[in-house]
Amino acid sequence: MAAAGISSTQVDEIMTTVVICCGAGGVGKTTVSAAMAMKMACEGYRVAVLTVDPARRLADSLGLEHLGNEPRPVLFQQDCQPHSPSRDSQIDGPAGRMDALMLDPGSTFDSVIRQVASSAETRDRILANRYYKYYSTKMVGSYEYGAMLRLHALLASGDYDALVLDTPPTRHAIDFLTTPHRMARVLDKQVVQVLSMAGSKSGFSSMLESNSAVLRVLDRFLGNRTIQDIGNFITAFEDIFEPLRERTIQLRDLLHADDTHLVLVTTPDSSTHKESRDFHQLIREQGIPFWGFIANRCATAPNFSEKLPLRLFPDEPPQSVDRESYREILEGVRRAPRHFARLASNQKAALDLLRSSVGSQERIWTVPAFGHEIHDIARLRAMSKHLPGYLEFQ
Length: 394
What we know:
The chain is α/β, with parallel strands linked by helices.
């Protein structure tokens, strides 16, 4: 069974745009990801939106009961508004569509093992290994690494012009973005060689005889059998470590490629800006291409006078409302435009301060606040009009 994947040269040649949406919890990152992918699909591009957040927010945003590890078509270009921009005539392929999927790390690992195992016997031995079953679903880092492998598979398929990733909240997104670097160290050839020695009794004995204090402590607390079982796990993986290591290096390179863009979703509320600034600095240090900020749920200053809303109300209150309460209602309506104008001004000042703290060259794309939850295609489409499209990332 030949090892499947893409070479480093092929990574450079594939022109799929990758947009990674990060941000603190509660800023609407999942909804922004789905709406942005929708806009690209309506422009005529083939797009997949993938969530690596174990919560069901992406399915909820799309009004779906369930999303799985395989791409599910949720929108085609013909479903978009008639005035949607047409597909760029220079790009070949089918008309725009939007697929969605939610990461299942276990299924992703199984698929990779089937691709890279050198034989059916090796494949079956690995898939049946109890340590593999644990690692692929519960081990620290397995979720993030599974997500990167799923991204690799989507990219290698050549089915998409753009991939939009919705990541977990910022602190977990950092784990996601640094996974290829950490896994490359874990898959180092010397590390694998030392661990695989424990797979045989003679190898384990020689390791203990080498006066390794660490191994003696492990033997005392875990026991000979457990350490040898771990060694057998490593040995079973020995012939696929190199393909996995190569794939990991490709993913590390992908995060730094020109076609990869990191978007930081925030709000105009200054309380979220410190986390945004810290994450922005980390991204710069990692050398990952940063596209800009999307400030979600921004107040919009009204463009009408305070008197206009009052014209919508009758002079006399309804029978069910007393005059004093009605007067207070009208006073609140009269003050509302002034309140929203002040709120919009304060939010603009906060965003200007964010821009000055991270660099005036950074983009800040603003999305207005909607007075309702966004959990269906129609409302996502309305939101998508305020988001960057495919060409903004070129």
